[in-house]
Structure formats: structure tokens, C-alpha cells
Batch of 2 targets.
Target 1
Amino acid sequence: MSQKIQLQEAFKLALSLMLFYGLALFMDWDMPKVGALAIVVTSLSTSGASFNKGVMRVVGTGLGALAGFVLLSWFSQSPLGMLLATSVWLVFVGYFLQTTRQGDTWFNAGLLAVAVWSSSYMRVDTAFHFATVRFLETAAGVLLFTIVGALLWPRTSGASLQQQGQALWEGLQTLFGQYRRQLSTGTAPADAAELRTRLAGEYQQLLATLEAACADTPKVGAKKRSWEILRINLRAFGNAQELWRESINDCRELDLGTLLPGLPAALDTLEQRLQRGHKLWQEQKTDIIEQAPDDTALLTKLSLQADSHGCKGLSHFQQAALMNFITQLQALDRSSRELLQTLRVLAYLDPDSKLPGHTKTADPFQPSAWNPERLLKATFPAICWIAGYAFWVFINPPGGPAIPMMAAVFGLMMVMAPANLFGLLIVLLLSMFITVAPVYLFLMPTLDSGFGLLALIFIYTFVFGYLGGRSPILKMGPLAMFVMMVDINNQQAYSFIALVTAGLVMMLGISIVVVVHRLLSPMHPEKILLRSMHRFLTGSARVIANFQLRSARQQRRNRKRRKRVFETAILPVSAQLLHIEKNLDYPLFPDNTPEKVHHLVDTLQSVRLRLQALEASYTTAASESPELLRYVGALNEKWRERIQMLFEKWARLEQTDVLINEWRSQPSLSQELEQRLDSLQQDSKLDEFDEQALRNIYALIGSTRSLLEAMQELGDSMQQINWNQWAVARF
């Protein structure tokens, strides 16, 4: 962010806060701090992002108020019932806090429910007034900041969306170049893993920016469906590219240049397609308007077929690896064509009717909402709430019912955005005693007019709003503490005791959350990783278990089951592992170094990709070549049972030597598969089927062999991990 933009954003925030306090004091509102805090929290970089966050805050406040009313009406005479019912609501809120993009909505729904309870502790009849005022003043704060942001130097998200989309395209283009070099040199690029991790985060960032741009950029809003399809296609292309990379690894023993004479030309055409897309992002459209993408059957046109003479000396598994390589390259071709076509629609070179075959904009890579790990994590704010309640009842420190409320709020914050609680506590306390306390105790009592107070608010907000342009914590910490602790209103009173009590309540709330987090072993990162791995491996075993030869009806059921397992177990865990890896307390586990853990996570990602390839090839073989698939059914059943057994043993994390022996025994399975195909070929049984059926079966065999190799790599990486260190309980 440039210095000029920092000054503009700081001025808008300061002006909004000053105008809001002026209006609130003139109208004699009860709780101006609520609307002021909404302004501070929703002051993001663009108008659309601020508006969306403001709307979520207002909706969440209304939902929390309604929940608070219901709970009070049912359990106002039953403290235990109120405690348990509020805990259930916090679990509900904590779960949806993780599964939806409306995190602020659910956070405020949980916050206001416990705030309504806290306000009603002395008198129940005050709860309605408290919730109503809080809702209205939150809405007023959001509305005022929206108006100021729209009138003064409005910043839209359209440019950011364009930049992020172009960065994603360039990252995918860079990866394609690296994988092409890997194809020729046989050496994997060193920085590819880091780039893949960065792109995984940018997919979600693009989604958030798209939602903001739809709110503040009419041009993007008019093309919302096209942008959504483009985002999905970008991720689909990235996934296809990773599957192709895995197939490259399986062809290490093959001379692809000789076997596939059309390969260099095909790769050149793919690279040119990506370059054309890059020009579209840069709005260099002159040569592209004349040159519509006619390369609809790239690999067919370029005759990307294996040289029949060269294939004769290959083993069945080598032929299968070659077929898998071609299949994945064809999938990459289709994905890149759809991606470029969507980009052309967005560039107004083609009409919306030419959007590539998407009747819906549902994201196939979006995992299912159901996730037991998220449910376990959702219990955390409820446990913090109960612990805070017990601490208040039995210890009765200053602050009263505000203590369990703060414990629940910080518990929700930990679920929403895990943070270093000790660091957060230090920042808040420093903000209170270094910036807020001097202003509150020594400067504000000297003011003798409302204009002086508003000037102070403007200057204070402008300074920290400007500093927050470089470090957000420098904005949120001092400003949030100023709004909450000073509590400006027409009945203003200055009390050192009140300030210290507020700080004590906050410190106790955070301390309770810290202790609960430390005592709850399941919340530790290494325990989450162990459970995630168990879920991933168990899910993989369930996927393999559903690769069974049955009737056509049963095949459809099995396909639906596999899809459900992918959505509920494999895809969400695969995405989660990338974050868990970064949060592990490595100094506590010296044997499990970051390099070993990264290798473990990377091999799990490889297994996930190869399971996806196996799913695709099996579905194709079952639908297009069912007779041949049944003919080699014994072959299919053998590998299915063994791979399923291996995944199940790994999921139980049996003894290390058992694990090693299991994955090392898999080459014998490969030999059995090879011998089976040889016998079929010698009996001339394979000649009874057409070429496409044989291709489908070889693609299936290639995917199977590819999965076996990934599992061998996984077994090797699991051997390097000291599982006992992670299994031991710690504080």
C-alpha cells in the first residue's frame, strides 16, 4: 500500500469515527462503542470488502440477538439450563464459523448471544433493550462508513481481482514450464513445492476478492457467473497439471521423445495457449481477436500416439504408464481449453453462451460441510465458556459475568483465526496501558467541549489508522481497545479502577482460553495431524473398497460412495494438512523435523492425486469397457484387497516394522499383475477387444501402478517419523 493510499484510508476511518461519535452524542445513543467498533473492524482496503464484512456483522448481530432472546425466554430461571443451552449454541456457531465463508456472521452470532446473557444478569428485562440498541448502532456504524467510503477516494476490488487472477495464471504458467523441464531433465524443480503451496492459498483469496468485487465493481458483478467459472477452471487446471506431473514421475524409465513423436509440438501448443491467456490478462488483444482458439483437439491433431514399433518392447506396466501419461496430458489439454475459453468470455471476445459446458457454478473442489475435525474444534469456545462461568461462580473476581463472556469470545476468535494468545494478550495490554490509559486518564478529563473530544478522536484514529496500513495489528489493537475501554458517551466518567477492571477481565478471559487450550490435548497441532492422517488413510481405504465389480446399479452406488468419501474425508484433510504442517511445535519434537513432516505431507498429497486419477480411469473403464474389466476382474480384486488392507494398517499406525514390511511387499503385487497380463496376451484373449477398450484398461492399470508407487513413497516417509513423540500427552 502506497503512502498516499495509507493517508487516504486513515483519513476516511478517522472521519467516519468522528462523525459517528458526533451523531451518537447528539442523539444520546446508549452504546456508541458498538457502532464505533463495527467501523474499526469493517475498515478494510476496498469498499466491497468493507461492505461485505459490515453486512455479515449486522446479520450476525441480529442472529445472535434472536438466539439470546430465545435462550433467555426458555432458561431465564434455570442457570444450569442456560449454561448448557448457550454451550450448544456456541458449538453450533463454532462449527459454521469454519465451514462457511460468512465467518463474521457466525462470530457475531455467538458473541451477541453471550453478551445478551451478560447484560441480563442483573435484570432480564434489559436484554431486549441491549440487543436492539446493539443491532441498530452496529447497522448505523456500517452504513456511515459505507457512505464515507463511497464518497471519499472510493477503492474498488476490481483491480485487485484482476491482479490476483493474473498472478494465479502466471503461477500456473510457471509450474507448467518447470514440469516441462522436469520431463526433459528428469529432475524435479526445487521451488515447485513452495509455489504449489502459495497457489493453494491464492485460490481462496481469489474467492474472497471476487465476492468483494461483485459488491463494488459493476463490471465484475455483471460477469459474476463467468468469473466464478474462471476461478473453478483455474483450480481445475492446477489439479490437472499436478496429475500430469505425477504421471511424469511414473515415466522415468521411458524415452518419451522416441515413443511420442508429437509430444514436443503438443507441449509447444499448450505453452502458446497459456501465453495467449497471459496476453488477455494484460489486455493485449489485437492478435487474439483474429486468432480464435481452433485447437479444440490438440493432441489428436498433433497425432500424439505412441509409436507402435517402439511400444513392442515395453512391459505391460510401462505401456500402462505411457497410457496414463497420455491420458493426463489429454485432461490437461481439455482443462486449458476450457480455461482459455472462459477468459475470452470475460474479455468480451466471445458471448456468454460460449462458456465451457458449466450449467452450474458449483465448485467441485469445495469439500463437504460435514467434518468431524471441525466439530471437535467447535467444542472449544463452549468449553472456554463453561470454564469461564465456573471461574466466575467459584472465585468471583472483579468483572462478574463479563469473564465467561470474554472467555467465549476469545474462544470463538481461536476457532475463526488461530493465533498466538500470549502475543495477543501482550499486544492488547500494551495498547491499553501505553496508548489508551494516558489518553483516558490524563488528556480526556481536560477537555471542556464536544469539539475538543471529536478532534481527539480524529487525531487518535488517524495516527493509528495510518500506522495500521503497514501493520494491521497497530490499527486493530489500539483502536479496538480505545473504543471498548474509553466507552465514550454523554454520561462519561473517568475511573482508574474501571480501566484496570476492564483490563483484568480481558486478561482473565484470555488466560482461561490459554489454559483450556493447553489442557485439551486434542487441540494440539500434532494431535490434529494424527487424527487427520487417520481420517485420510481410512477414507482412502473406503475409496478402494468401493472399486468392486457389481451390477450397473451397484456400480453407480459405489461411484456415489467414492465421491462422498472424497468430499468428506480426502479433499478437506488434504487441504488441512498444508496448514497443520506450519503450526506444529517443532522444538518439542526434535526427531520430527520440518523437512520430514513436509515430505510426509507432500507424499500424502501425491497419494490424493493418484487416487483421483484412479477414480477417473476406473469410472471410464467401467462405463466404456465393462466386459474387459470383468474379464480381468480377478486382477482388479487382487490389487483392491491388498491396497485396502495396507491403507487400513497405516490408519491404525501399527508398529513401524509392520508398516515397512507391508509397503515393501507391494512390488510382488506388481509382478503378479504383469504375469496375469502376459498370460492373457499369450492366450490371445486381449485381441478380442477393440483398441479403445485396451486403452481404458491400460489407463486403469497405469493409475493402479502409479498409486502403488506413491504408497511406497508414503511408507518411506512414515518410516522417518517418530510417531511416539506426537502420541505423548503434553501441557
Target 2
Amino acid sequence: MESLRFNAINHLSGLGKEISVEGADKVTKIFGENVFTLKTAREHLSDEAYKSLVASIKTGKKIDRNMGNQIGAGLRHWAESKGVTHFTHWFQPLTGTAAEKHDSFFTLKGDGTPIEEFDGAALIQQEPDASSFPSGGLRATFEARGYTAWDPTSPIFIMNIGDANTLCIPTIFVSYTGESLDTKTPLLRSIEALNKAAVDVCHYFDKNVTKVIATLGWEQEYFVIDAGLANARPDITMTGRTVFGHAPAKGQQLEDHYFGSIPERIYAFMKDFEEAAYRLGIPLRTRHNEVAPAQFECAPIYEEANLAVDHNMLVMDIMNRIARRHNLTTLLHEKPFAGINGSGKHNNWSMSTDTGVNLLAPGKTPKTNLMFLTFFVNVIKAVDDYADLLRASIASAGNDHRLGANEAPPAIISVFVGKYLSEVLSEIKTRVGDNFSEQDEILLKLDIHKNIPELLLDNTDRNRTSPFAFTGNKFEFRAVGSTANCAIPMTTLNAIMAATLTNFKNEVDALIEKGDKKEIAIMHVIREYITSSEKVLFEGDGYSEEWHHEAERRGLPNLKTTPIALDAMVTDKAKKLFEETGVFSHTELEARHEIELEAYIKKVQIESRIMGELCTSHILPSSVKYQNILINNIKGLKELGLPESAYANQLQILEKISEHIGQVADGVEKMIEARKVVNKMTDTRTKAIAYQSQVKDAFFDKIRYHVDKLELLVDDQYWLLPKYREMLFLR
């Protein structure tokens, strides 16, 4: 029987070179056509209902049941015109993915008459089974009630899956007692906390500012391989990555893939999923080959953070589904292949006012430049004070494989600002002293005004090794993993910024009360923040061993593993931060800590089990089969009376194979026994650390080493698992 591997390779040989995808001539013709935009709402709602919806979006005003009924009727009319028969509350539980339960517009009246309806109650709130999702102990099975509640700030959309269309209503997900059971609720809370704190600081410079929004532009990296080859790899199916696989002769060393010509089959897939994204109002702007073979990236135009998070969740879902249409598989895991670049999801974050000002863009006047400096330095201060929390926000089993490898930023959180801005910060630190006068302040502002506008986007320094880098008008949080829900790091970043800005205003106001002029008070606090947080600034190579030693000398945390990194979530400092900003209660924070630890345990456990399964049912049988062939060959040569030199090479290969077989079998057996010991542990944190140290660190690399050696030694025709050269280069 031919193996799945060779079946997949043979199938590839028969694929046509060109795959055509019909699509719209212009993006503008289809963009947002499946989104219930305000323009669409205006066409399908009464004036009263439309005004109620707009007020809810802009001010958070609650929509009453009567208006809900009107909006629901308008939504159903619009949806039915597009072939929709069902609706769902689309939410993001603590699973890392989106969830949905579809209900039909169809119902029966009391007299049995069939009708279609969609009332305000169905629109505004539903009650899924909360016990079926991770809660970290917040909800017991007998307290299963959870509620999804409509989030009007994220537009309702229609999802097309095959021939079915479903009306999707973005919602939050909370328990009966109000605790958040999702990622959207704390994100919305953090956005509001940042808005309040940032507006207060903006009023030092512009009283017209009434709202500040967090903006996000994500960069989604991913791999695409043939579906047949992926299906022949149980490890990819189970874990999203390859747990074994010898490096191919050619990897990324020629640097010929980055920004190269997109393969036709991949191009057809990209065109297909991009069109689906455009119909959902997702403003994808770029696509290109990434550094590693078979690795690609897409990125949208910047959006309000909540909407951007929803769009990223949708894009990941769309990519996976549409890839299957093209007999492809997308790999979103942070490290699907060893020895080449992993995948991240750079989160480009900034803040914008309702007056049209990007608060992290250098200005053209002394006043706007002082505002820029204020927010710029506050970001640095926030990252320095809460580096451990930022590290925790991107911690996962998958990201542990990536951080510090190849082009992935290290687990040490540092900030890169570039040569020029480093000089600006140094000048402020030097010139703003105890005797700083109004005249000095004017001169300093003029200097800044003269130079900062020269900091153009195209001229900024880039440090690919920095986990948190300033790139001209935003900060790029590069350490976020490719599978991550952006809501988690964004919630943390918004919260720490809100807390820092609040403290900043309190300190400035205190100096003003003592008699300092506003601008002088601001500069004094800015200088204080620069001085206290300069240890987090680093312009060099974040991958170097020297930086690890330097970071330790500076007192920066180097949290290399997820179980340890997650400790930051439940410190007194974290609890105080999230409680004061209103983002998490203590119980919500502790619940999330428990959930993240449990997720880590389960993922490492699954990887360990699939390693054992592959060794037992694939690797060892193939190796033994070839071992027997060598044995028979050597026996035959001996029986013919040939000298030992005639079979010396075969004997040498046999000895190596036998050694590796023994090491693999022994390693798997010991790993299983270690897992049994760890599984008996009851404390979640202790268990997670044990899975990391006693299972993963103790056995994964050791077993892999010997398996990968066997891959090189065993006759190719007997090796059942598709090899790296096939998955990365055959399409």
C-alpha cells in the first residue's frame, strides 16, 4: 500500500500550473458589501432606530428593547435580501478562537403559523452554556448560565460558508454574575480606561479633544503547504507544527523567498481569501512572501483596536477555510518548522484623537511636539514598569518555540526608539534640571520642533530584534505570536498606558499646584520618567548573548517560559493595575491565569502524546523495516564469503540506525513515565512548570534529534512522513 506521503506527492505532480479565481475588478465595488454599515443601516432603519444605533456606537448608550425590535427587523430585512436564514452571536471565549451558535429566523406562532422574525431580545442578548468554555473556576457546571450581549461598536456582518450565509452579531460573553468570560469585554474596558486617561492628558494641549481611541494594525504571518502533505503529518493535524523533521539542504539561507514572486497556486488562494475579507469590510492592504520558504504575510490598514481584533479573528478563520478550497493548509503556529523563521503577528499600536491627531506622530509646532513627547515618554515608562505583564500577554506554548529564535524577538521586553529620539531623550535628561526656567523650556521646545519633523517614516531606524520598537508614528509590539488573539496584548498595553497617563497627570497637577507653569511641570515629569525608565531602552542586537547579560545587569526580567512568565498576571502590582483601570477584577485575573496555565499543560501534553504515537506507529516501524533489509543484505554478503570490507558501510549504517532506534524507544518510554508522574500533580502552576521542565525540556529535543537522524539514514521509500523539502518547496 502506497503511503499518504507518496500519494500526496503524486497528486501534486498532476495539479495544473494555473488556478484561476474569478473576482471583482475593483476592491471598492465589493468592500463591505456583507457588513451592516451605518450607510446600510440608514437604508433599512427608521430615523428613530438609526439615531439610537448611532448613539449607542458613539456614546455607549444602551439600546432599549423597543429600538432593538426595530433594529432587529431592519437587520433581518437586509440579511434576507442576501440569502440569510440564520443568525448567531459571534463571540470570543477564552479558547483562542471565535465561537458561534446558529439560530434560524424561522419560528412558529401560537397557532402553528410559520413566520420569520428577529426581535430585539434575540439581537441584544443570548444565553449559551457557559460551562462548556474555559472559565478558570469562575463558573461551575451547575452555574452554567452565561450571556452574550451585542457590541454595537463592531459592525454586524454576514459570513458566507459554502452555500450558507449567516448573520453574525459581535458580542461580549459574560457570566450570570457579570464576570467576563471572553477577550472582548476586557479589551473594551481597557479601551475606555485609555480613552479617559488620555483625554485628560490631551487637555493640557487641546481642550477640544473629547475622545482618544487605540488604533491597531496587525501583520499576520503564516505558512501555506499542500493539504495532502499536511494530512500525511499527524503532528501538523494535532498540533499545528512538525514535532520531527530534518532540515532540508536548502532552507532560507539563500534569502531568495522574502518579497519574491508569489507562487501561482498561492496567489490564487490569496486572491480568494482577500476577496472574502474585502466583502467583510476588512481593509487588507499588503501581501508578500516572508523570509522562510512557504511563509507569507498579509496586513490591513490601521483600524480602531476593537474592530481590528475582530477583523484579525475573521481573517484567520477565512484563511483556514478558503485554503481548503485550494487543497492547501494554512499553518498559523508560531514555529511549524524547526530551523527556519517562525511566525509572529506584529501589533502596530498607537493612539488617535477625535480631532484627527496621532498622539505618537511628531508634530510641526512646539505645542504638538510637546504633546508627542508626553505620550511617547509615557509609553516607554509604561513598558518599563510593566514589562513582565507585557511578556505574560504574549506567553503561550507555541510562542515559547519562537521567542529568541531566528527573527523572533527575545523574551526580554525592551524598547527601541532609534538613534535620533535617543538623542532627544538624552538632551531632555541633561537640560531639564532643578533650575529649568521658562526661557530654557522655550529654547528646548524650539530645538525639538526644529528636528523631530525630520523623523520621517521612511527614515526611521528598524531593529528586527526588538520586541517593542518605535517605527515613526506608532509602536510595533513584535513579540506577539501568530496564533494569538490580539485582544490579549492590546488589553494589557491599553491598561498599562492608562495607568501611566493617570499617574503622569497627577504628578503634573501636583507641580502646577505648587506654582510651576504647565509646560515646565510637564517637562519636569517627562525628565523624571526618562531617567527612571531608561534601563528598558536598548538599540543593539536583542539576539546576542551580551544583551542577556546586560539585561540582567539592568534588572530587566528574562522570562523564557510560559508558566513562569504567567506569574506576572497575579502579582499585587498586576491586581492593583487592572482593578484601578477597571479592566479585570481580582477573580477574573486569577481565572485567566488558571486558564492560560491549563492551556499550556494541554498543548504540551498533546505534543508529547503525538511524538510518542509517531515514534511507535511511524518512525520505529519504518526504521526497523530498513534495519532488517540491511541485516539481510549483510548476512547475504557474509554467506557469499565476501570480506568484511564489502559490507562495512552497510554495517556502519546499521549500527547507527540501531543506536538511534534504541534512543528513540528509550526516550519515548521515559517521556511517557514522566508524563504519568506529572499528570498526578494537582496544583496547576506546579503541573505546568513540570510539563515544561520534566517533559518538554527533558525529552522533546532529545527524541527529535534521534528521529531526525533516522530520517537521514532510512531509505526514502520507507519513510512515511512528508519531509521538510517536500512541505516547504512542493506546491
